[in-house]
């Protein structure tokens, strides 16, 4: 440990005249400070737990209620309506013997007043919570156009603010969030049939209608009853099954197929010293973790008022996905004090605390520089060890049981899996460079899969540091969605650039502590059989990585600012551009996935928006017909449809999670449903996502336009389809991250990027004044609500 940075903290020698005991004062001092810090941390966590537990009331409000009720003892008015007197009599006739012996009538009256006041206080807390929960169950506000708030919504917002209390902590609203409602079977089936209508010919659609009707008439009611029962019992009827069956039970590699990445600042590199940048970023992450553990982050709130669920943030640090033969598990630990670093095939353990405090950025820089300067070679089998996490899950689970469940290998693996997170110090520079062709493509592929053995893909996230000072993140997906990691990353970048800073030479600020213990090499004894398993996993992962065709594109012709002037949601605008690009690229329409968040509900994660609608298809076909004269009207109709579907998904009225859960219930009950099998087997050939930006608003990007992130992306979901992540950055920039597979002859990420670029420009051209009867409306400020928050990919 960092606290025990001498080889021996105490020594003793047995002599004929007794035992000579020698203690290291410095070690004892560090142990004392570490213990003191731990107790302070527990006290703060306890205090914040109490504050969140009684929210929206406060502990001081209990004292106010008690004083009020006790003062009523000396007034002719009894606000308790005789209950205090009844409690006093109960204490007299039914109390314990010692109470009768030592309590006077006045003491019994005071005790009765305190007990009644406490009960009244708890009742008021629950009344406030359930009142707030009832208010938060109203979602009519989300269907109103921005800037056109109705009187009822204004009243509703005022009531929400009134019941929300002051200075809420991160988890203050959890008990007040409504549960995700279960949609009706009729609405879900109707929505599904409407979504597939533009994708099927008449005969196929009629067959699907027959399947749907048969399901509704025969099996749906029974499955729905069980689902409603679960929704009453569980905090969320979807999330636990979603995590288990979509993520943890998957046996294919999670690298590329599940994990996602997030990029560093596009245009700025605060320092070009790798160790210094890593030192600042790791220190900023430790600050974020400390606030997270204490629950001191402010909860995210839509409109600055409507709270979002914070459950996913709990497992951000100290978390690892553990492989199993049939299913994985997510292991989350508390109070982890070390970090594991990978560099040139070696694993190092770095302690993050000394003397009961976090290591300072300058101290972390020293530790990381020591690793970079270490000339030692990897041990046999160590170089590609992490490839086990990149390959299929079953071979990794078997290798873990056979070779890592005892001895030195278990100790080293435990160090990795119990670490706060994983840091990879790469030896090849990456990052966006305007002078280098396809630099964004190379940067994204490095973050997504690297060399297939230099990321620990099972950790909640791997922080990646490059020798030119650039950074990035590869995140495991089962524990949380992209906006959660993005929230942390925004905090870290802002803290790194605007609070911690660097010296003129590019080093971390602060004195250098050369007395810190050196990072410790993890030791391995990897037999030939295990090395063969590592190589096999590496080769399968390498095949997946080499098949990823990636293209990153910065769209700078216009951005959110101009789109808003067209009185259109930027998200709907981009989704329709993607539909147009898809049709031009493939000549057909396809099932399209767009992810929406459901975090306005307790334990909410995501819902699907099926973007390829009848209205979108009509608009795209009209765009390809040079003789069309109603393009703008068709566009607005398609955009409005998309916006409405997105809002329905956000408010619990989506169709895909409901169908997914009905299917899970059918498997539990051993009920065969051809309709559900058909629905769940349909491929998403176009999977899209918007990564949210400016969740925290810590940096004014209008004042500092170069301090913007490139966002993030993910691998292709279908073998013959595209994955597209887009990020609306400020008013004048949109970034696209496009992925597909080289093995598919019909897809090309660069070509699709060109099609998106042209589609964006073609749609924007519709809003020229000569194409709009009312050209003045282009300059109007009113715009439907933008749907940027909380979206991620499946």
UniProtKB/TrEMBL annotation:
Q: What is its EC number?
A: 2.3.1.21
Q: Where is the active site?
A: 477
- Cellular component GO terms, alphabetically? mitochondrial outer membrane
Q: Which reaction does it catalyse?
A: (R)-carnitine + hexadecanoyl-CoA = O-hexadecanoyl-(R)-carnitine + CoA
Chain ranges passing through the membrane = 109-128
Q: What UniProt keywords are attached to this protein's entry?
A: Acyltransferase, Fatty acid metabolism, Lipid metabolism, Membrane, Mitochondrion, Mitochondrion outer membrane, Transferase, Transmembrane, Transmembrane helix, Transport
Where does it reside? Mitochondrion outer membrane
- Does the keyword Acyltransferase feature in the UniProt annotation? yes
Where do the Choline/carnitine acyltransferase domain residues begin and end?
Answer: 180-758
Q: What class of enzyme is it?
A: transferase
Supply one GO BP term.
fatty acid beta-oxidation
Query: Which pathway features in its UniProt record?
Result: Lipid metabolism; fatty acid beta-oxidation
Give the record's family classification.
Answer: Belongs to the carnitine/choline acetyltransferase family.
Q: What is this protein called?
A: Carnitine O-palmitoyltransferase 1, muscle isoform
Q: Provide the species name.
A: Gouania willdenowi (Blunt-snouted clingfish)
As recorded in Swiss-Prot or TrEMBL, the protein's gene is named cpt1b
């Amino acid at each position: 440990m960092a606290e025990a940075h001498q080889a021996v903290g105490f020594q003793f020698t047995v002599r004929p005249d007794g035992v000579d005991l020698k203690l290291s004062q410095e070690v004892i001092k560090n142990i004392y400070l570490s213990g003191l810090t731990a107790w302070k941390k527990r006290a703060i966590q306890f205090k914040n737990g109490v504050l969140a537990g009684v929210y929206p009331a406060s502990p001081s409000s209990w004292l106010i209620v008690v004083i009020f009720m006790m003062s009523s003892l000396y007034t002719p008015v009894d606000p308790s309506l005789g209950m205090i007197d009844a409690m006093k009599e109960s204490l007299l006739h039914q109390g314990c013997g010692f109470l009768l012996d030592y309590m006077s009538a006045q003491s019994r009256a005071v005790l009765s007043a305190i007990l009644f006041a406490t009960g009244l206080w708890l009742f008021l807390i629950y009344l406030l919570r359930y009142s707030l929960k009832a208010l938060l169950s109203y979602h009519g506000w989300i269907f109103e156009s921005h800037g056109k708030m109705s009187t009822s919504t204004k009243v509703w917002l005022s009531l929400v603010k009134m019941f929300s209390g002051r200075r809420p902590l991160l988890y203050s609203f959890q008990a007040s969030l409504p549960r995700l409602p279960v949609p009706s079977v009729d609405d879900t089936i109707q929505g599904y049939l409407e979504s597939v209508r533009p994708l099927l010919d008449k005969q196929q659609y009629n067959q699907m209608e027959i399947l749907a009707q048969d399901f509704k008439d025969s099996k749906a009611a029974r499955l729905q009853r069980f689902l409603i029962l679960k929704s009453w019992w569980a905090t969320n009827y979807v999330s636990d099954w979603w995590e288990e069956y979509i993520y943890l039970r998957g046996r294919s590699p999670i690298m590329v197929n599940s994990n996602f990445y997030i990029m560093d600042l596009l245009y700025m590199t605060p320092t070009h010293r790798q160790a210094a940048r890593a030192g600042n970023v790791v220190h900023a992450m430790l600050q974020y973790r400390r606030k997270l553990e204490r629950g001191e982050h402010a909860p995210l709130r839509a409109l600055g008022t409507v709270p979002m669920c914070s459950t996913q943030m709990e497992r951000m640090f100290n978390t690892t996905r553990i492989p199993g033969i049939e299913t994985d598990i997510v292991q989350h630990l508390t109070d982890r004090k070390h970090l594991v670093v990978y560099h040139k095939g070696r694993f190092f353990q770095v302690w993050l605390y000394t003397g009961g405090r976090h290591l300072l950025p300058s101290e972390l820089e020293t530790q990381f520089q020591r690793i970079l300067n270490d000339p030692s070679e990897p041990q046999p089998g160590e170089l590609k060890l992490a490839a086990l996490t990149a390959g299929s899950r079953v071979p990794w689970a078997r290798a873990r049981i056979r070779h890592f469940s005892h001895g030195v290998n278990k100790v080293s693996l435990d160090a990795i899996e119990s670490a706060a997170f994983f840091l990879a110090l790469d030896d090849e520079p990456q990052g966006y460079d305007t002078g280098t062709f396809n630099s964004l493509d190379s940067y994204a592929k490095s973050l997504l899969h690297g060399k297939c053995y230099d990321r620990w893909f099972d950790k909640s996230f791997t922080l990646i540091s490059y020798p030119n000072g650039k950074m990035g993140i590869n995140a495991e997906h089962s524990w949380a969605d992209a906006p959660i990691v993005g929230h942390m990353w925004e905090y870290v970048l802002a803290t790194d650039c605007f609070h911690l800073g660097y010296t003129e030479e590019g080093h971390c600020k602060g004195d250098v502590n050369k007395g810190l213990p050196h990072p410790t090499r993890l030791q391995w004894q990897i037999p030939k059989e295990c090395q063969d398993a590592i190589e096999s996993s590496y080769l399968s992962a390498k095949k997946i990585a080499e098949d990823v065709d990636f293209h990153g594109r910065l769209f700078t012709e216009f951005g959110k600012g101009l789109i808003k002037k067209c009185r259109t949601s930027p998200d709907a605008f981009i989704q329709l551009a993607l539909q147009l690009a898809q049709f031009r690229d493939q000549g057909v329409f396809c099932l399209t996935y767009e992810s929406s968040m459901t975090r306005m509900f307790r334990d909410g994660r995501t819902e699907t928006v099926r973007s390829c609608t009848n209205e979108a298809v009509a608009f795209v076909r009209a765009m390809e017909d040079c003789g069309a004269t109603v393009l703008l009207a068709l566009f607005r109709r398609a955009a409005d449809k998309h916006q409405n579907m997105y809002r329905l998904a956000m408010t619990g009225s989506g169709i895909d999670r409901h169908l997914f859960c009905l299917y899970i219930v059918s498997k539990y009950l051993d009920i065969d449903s051809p309709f559900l099998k058909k629905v769940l087997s349909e491929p998403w050939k176009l999977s899209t996502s918007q990564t949210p930006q400016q969740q925290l608003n810590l940096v004014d990007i209008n004042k500092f336009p170069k301090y913007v992130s490139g966002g993030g992306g993910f691998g292709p979901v279908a073998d013959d389809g595209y994955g597209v992540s887009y990020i609306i950055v400020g008013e004048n920039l949109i970034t696209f991250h496009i992925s597909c597979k080289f093995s598919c002859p019909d897809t090309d990420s660069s070509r699709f990027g060109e099609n998106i670029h042209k589609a964006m420009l073609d749609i924007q051209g519709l809003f020229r004044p000569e194409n709009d009867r009312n050209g003045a409306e282009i300059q109007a400020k009113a715009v439907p609500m933008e749907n940027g928050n909380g979206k991620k990919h499946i």
